[in-house]
Design a protein that fits this description.
The chain is of the alpha/beta class. It contains nine helices and seven strands. The chain has helices at residues 10-15, 18-29, 34-41, 45-57, 79-93, 126-138, 157-167, 195-198, 229-250; strands at residues 32-33, 61-65, 73-77, 115-120, 143-148, 189-192, 209-212. The protein is globular, with a radius of gyration of 20 Å.
């Protein structure tokens, strides 16, 4: 009697379902709420919620309560977890198919630099952290800016400290600015890092690609100094991970990026 074949790895079982694959594809581009995913995949809400629950159970997708409306949750695809799950699935098929995650390739020098705008409410923590990290990782090959819908008087001291300590970046001389000051500028990507600012509509022309990263405000319910600092460390680490997976997309033309 032939031995029974081993079960397919969990990632393969989860991703092989057509609707779950579609959900993974949508969430690879941006964080979304359930009703937005329902519209994008064209399936009933109860079915979408069921498959999201399976993806969450498999550790591929996480959910966070919206800071704009606590009745809503934003779903996020853990690309780092997907990388390791894919590697494990390859190794299960054949040892030669396992791979170590490779760093993103360096950005080519296009005729026109891609332009990215990061937005949050106060432009004092999340969006300036993202601006600094993307500029640092691309060595000036990307035009990057940040702004807020209700800018604070100054950059949060913990944001300044984390960037200096963790990445050797100094933004102490930077000041928050309003989104309105950037109206009329061309951006290829407008990335909101705050659920509240996502609800604010601004016209940046030329139809930039809108992306949402639902990231909690590290300054909320914290205070400067030892209490608040760990939250800023976690926030900067999450933003840096998301930026690493953004980099390959910046080398593509708009036609090559899946809508």
């Amino acid at each position: 009697m032939r031995p029974s074949s081993p079960a397919a790895p969990a990632f393969v079982q989860l991703a092989a379902h057509p609707l779950r694959w579609k959900l993974l594809t949508e969430l690879a581009a941006s964080d979304y709420r359930v009703r937005e995913l329902v519209e994008r995949v064209g399936q009933p809400q109860n079915l979408v919620s069921y498959h999201l629950r399976l993806l969450r159970g498999g550790g591929l997708v996480t959910a966070r309560r919206s800071s704009f409306d606590a009745r809503d949750s934003y779903y996020h695809l853990d690309l780092e977890r997907c990388v390791h799950a894919l590697a494990q699935a390859g190794s299960a098929l054949h040892p030669a198919l396992g791979f170590a995650p490779a760093p993103p390739p360096p950005l080519p020098r296009p005729e026109r630099r891609p332009a990215v705008l990061f937005a949050c409410t106060g432009n004092s923590a999340r969006s300036p952290i993202a601006e600094a990290l993307l500029r640092h990782r691309t060595d000036g090959q990307v035009e990057v800016a940040s702004a807020g819908s209700h800018p604070k008087p100054r950059i949060h001291s913990d944001a300044v400290q984390v960037l200096r300590e963790q990445h050797g970046i100094d933004i102490s001389g930077q000041r928050p600015r309003h989104l309105d000051t950037l109206l009329g500028r061309r951006f290829d990507y407008v990335i909101s890092l705050c659920d509240k600012v996502r609800e604010v509509r601004h016209d940046f022309g030329d139809q930039p690609r809108l992306v949402h990263w639902s990231i909690p405000d590290p300054a909320a319910a914290t205070s400067p100094g030892p209490v608040g600092h760990p939250a800023f460390v976690r926030t900067a680490a999450e933003i840096d991970t998301r930026i690493r997976y953004l980099l390959p997309l910046l080398t593509l033309t708009p036609q090559e990026v899946q809508p």
